[in-house]
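Notebook p. 47: complex prediction with C2E.
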Amino acid sequence: MQILIADDSRTNLAILTDALQKLGHSVIPAHNGQEAIQLFQEKRPDLIILDVMMEGLDGFACARKIRQLGGDEEWIPIIFLSSSTDDESIAKGIDAGGDDYLTKPFSDITLAAKIKAMQRIADMRQKLFDTTQKLYLLSSTDTLTGVYNRHQFDRSLKEILAAANRHHYITGLLFIDLDHFKNINDTFGHQVGDLLLIEVASRLKACVRSNDFIARLGGDEFAILLNEIERPEDAGNIAQKIVNTLSFDYNLDEHNIRSGASIGIACYPPSKTAEELILNADVAMYHAKATGRNNYQHFTEELNEKYKKQLNLEHALKFALERKEFFLTYQPIFDLKTRNIVGIETLLCWDHPQFGLVSPSIFIPIAEETGLIIDIGNWILRTACHQASLWPLDQIKNFKFAINISSRQLLRENFATQVMTILNDTGLSPQQLELELTETAMMTSTAGSFKEGIIKLHECGISISIDDFGTGYSSLTRLKHLPINTLKIDKSFIQDSTTNPNSAIIVNCLIALGKNLKLNVIAEGIETQKQLDFLIEKGCPQGQGFSLSRPVDKEQIEKLLKKQIYERTNSE
Ligand code: C2E
Ligand code: MG
Ligand code: MG
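Predicted complex, structure tokens below:
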């Protein structure tokens, strides 16, 4: 053991040094309290022996100072050396931070025994210290990747921001989310997923400085705190480096895997609190995901507004049905040659007291994501079929009443039964109903259950049309094997058909494709006479669009239908 002794009597110091050296210890001698403190700081001995009665700083005062300097973690045993050991001075010594007393004069045996006892205490303290360190490490790191965990992230964030505040630094927070991690896990198994996370952590380490803070917050989410950056753009540069690095191929367990990451960046300041910083980085990351993944985005106030609005919409949508804010409009579909109405498409509208009219292209995706589409879709089917049953549709040959549905509705097990119940209740015939599904929905749904859903509807006599056709890259083989009745050419092609030769070719091909597959073809979004003429020339049988009729309310539809029936009866 390395033992520090402090005694202002040179003789005593020499005797004690001699005795300790004989016992095999090395000695650091100090001639007064002040020197003892200085040597303690320099040498960090294993044991300290202090004479109580010293000139200047006495043993007790010296012990107190040492305890203050060392803190709890470096609790080195202290023995007091004194000629008088009355109760009061023993108590005083223990209070000052001492562990034992040695009364002068002492025998070598007593000295050896006391030192042995102190050694035991020192060993136990060391073990306790090591275990605490290990526990701390365990509670603060992610066992899989070795970077910090969420718990430590929360703790360190507060400390790092407090330091940034004191020194007027900018701290950047990067939220990193791996793209399609779930797919990799599902395809290659969890073991490969784990290997990917380990590799990602090691690539992240290589992208930042050693004093930057990396944590895995859970699953495939990582966070990096960039200390002392000068401008938010610096965080952008690092984020770009990370996006590049993480998109290089991974060779894991003999699989060649491609991944990528979406990163959201927020800085403190301008974010004012730790909570705000996290929220802002999250908004930015949400935006990075929405803008095609494998990129980074900075938080901005405009994004915040947009995101808040989205959340507000989401919230409001939950109550829209019970507050009766939905209504339906109907757009007629025409036979392009005769200009007769041969069908009607039902379109959902949402009139919110605060937001006004919200477009279905905005709220339908939210309704789909949140699952609200099931109840809303049910309401549409019931309301629309009831309305249609009041119109004289029977008097128009091959008339189709169309309703848009979402794939989430179709994929419900009892969807066909549900539709049949509504048809029974309202009196509309299945042959008059056509359900529209977008091509994208068709392509992104699981093949088996989607086909099953369509077949069930077909067996009930209900028609199916593929909406927005041409935008979803569907495979023609798949199309051929589904009992589909109608293709609706997406309005973007129709609108470009008279100005863009490529669109004209596509429209022409889609009309021919429909005819070959013996399907009805409807052109959507006809806005001009020129487009109409083009479609008629190419032999497109049916169409809808503002130039023919805008979506209108139920009263107007009734008028249009009655007029057509009246004119036909009179002309016969
Ligand atoms: P969609 O099914 O393709 O419906 C046609 C959309 O094009 C409607 O927009 C309609 O108002 C619009 N439109 C019709 N003619 C023209 C035209 O000449 N020019 C232009 N620029 N637009 C025209 P809307 O009502 O905003 O609906 C947008 C989309 O929202 C629909 O596209 C459909 O995918 C979805 N949607 C609407 N109602 C429902 C519904 O009840 N259920 C479901 N699941 N989706 C619906
Ligand atoms: Mg439609
Ligand atoms: Mg469409």
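Notes: The chain is about 50% helix and 20% strand. The longest helix spans residues 108-140.
Next step: compare against the earlier run before touching the bench.
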